[in-house]
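**User:** My hope is that you can spare some time for a protein that puzzles me. I have put the entry right below:
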Amino acid sequence: MRDCAVGIDIGTTAVKSIVYSARGEILFEKAVPHDLISKEPGYAEEDPTTWWQSVSLLLSSIQRDTDTARIAGLCFSGMVPTVILLDDAGTPIRPSIQQNDARAVAEIAEWKAAVDEDDYFRRTGNTVNQQVVFPTFDWLRRNEPENVERAATVLGSYNYATFKATGVRTLDTNWALESGYWLVREQQWDHDTIERSGIRSDRLPPVYDSAEIVGSTTEELQRETGFPAGIPVLAGIADHVASALSTGVRSEGDLLLKLGGAGDILFATDDLRLDRRLFIDYHPVPGTYLINGCMAAGGSVVKWLMQLFETDDFDRLTDEAELLPPGSDDLVVLPYFLGEKTPIFDTNARGVFFGLNLGHTRAHLFRSVLESVAFAYYHHLEVLQEIGFDVRRVFLSNGGARSRLWKQIVLDVVGHDGVYVPDHPGSCIGAAMLALESTGVSRDWESLRRFLDRGVAIPFTDGNHRRYREYYKVYRELYENLKPLFPRLPGTAGREG
C-alpha cells in the first residue's frame, strides 16, 4: 500500500529529509549539513554537487531504513531563487549563486535607472533588488562570459535536485515569479525583461505548478542509491511556501510568523493585491497567494546579545526576563542590526536601544530584543490591514517559537491567539504533504490536518496587548525620527537606502 511520501529540503546549511505518512506519522527524519561559500564580501554561493551527494546519501538511508514499497511520491523544496548554470550534459558549470548574494550592486543600479519601476512592479509583483535573477545574470555576463556561453539551462536549488532525480529540466512558478522574469497575473514569461536581460529564453525550461508531477525517479538513481525507480516526482516547492503550508496556512486570512535567525511573515489570500512594501508568492492551493514579508534579523540579534553576555543559557535568561513587565521597564529596541527588508526596505537602518538607565539589567536587554522582533511583526500586520486584509488565524514556527516567553510576547504584541506545533521538522514535511496530496494518497489535505492535531493553542493576553500598543507607537516614531540620521553614519555613506 502506497501511503507515504518523501520530502527533501535543500537548505542554506543542510539537506533535510523526511518520510511522512497520510496517517500523520513521521517514519524517517535525517539531515546532512553543508557549508556556504563566500569568496568575496557580499558573495553567497554553494556547491550543487554537494547538495546532490547529500540527497543521494539520504535516499540510500531511506531505502535501507524504511519500506520504500509504501512511497507514493517525492517532492523537493529549497531556497529560492538561487541561480544554477547547467551545461548540455546537465553538469553545474560553477557554484550556485544564492538568493542572499549581494554582488550585483552596479547592475541593480543600472536596471533601476533604465526601467519604469512602477510599471515593472504592476506587471511582475517585483521591485529591482538583489533577490531577482536578472541583475545576477548581468553580472555573470560581464564577469564570467565563458560560463554564460556554456550554459544550456538556468535552474534553482530544488529544480536541480528534481532534474537529477528525473532527468527532466523544469522550473516551478515560484522560482519563475521570484526571478523577476515572470508576469504575476498572466503566469507567463515577461519577454520584455528577458530580452533586456540578454538571457536566451531557451535556457529557461518549462514552468509547472509546484504540485504537478513532472517525471519519475530514474533507473540511474536506483543504481546509485537503491531508491526505487518509477516514483512520481513533483515540480518542487519554495522552502518558505512549504513551511507555510505545513504549519496550516492555506486559507484566506491565515498568517504564519516564523521566529528564525531572520523573521518571515506569510499571509494567505485569495485576492491578488500588490504592495511594494511586501513580496508575493503563489500558494500550492490553486487560486491562493502568499503575501510575504522578510525581516533581515530576528533570532540573530538574540544570538549576538547572548554572545555579548558570554552565556549560552537561554533558559536562565528567559526565567529572568519573565519577571519583568511588558515594555521591559521603558526600554525599546529597533532590531535593524542588518538594516531592514520588509516593510521599510532600508539598508541604512541600524539597531538601537532606547531608554536605557542604570537600573536596567541583562534581562531587560534580552526581553526588549524579543519585544522588538514582535513589534516588527506587528508592523507587517498593520501593512496588511492598510492593504485591506484581515488576519483570522495565526501560526508560529521555527526555533524561536520553542521559547515559551517569546511565543507569548509575539502573540501579546500582535493581539491574536496562536497555534504552535512542537518539534516541527520544517519545509521538508510541507514538500512531503504536497506529494501526498498530488498523488491522491491524501485528499483535501487530510495529512496536514492530522499533523496539526499535535498543535498547541496559545491565547494572547489582552491587557498586555493594550500596554504593548503604547510601546509600539514609540517603536514606530523612533525609527521615523532616526531615519534621516542613519545615512550620516560614516560607514553608511554612499549606500542606497
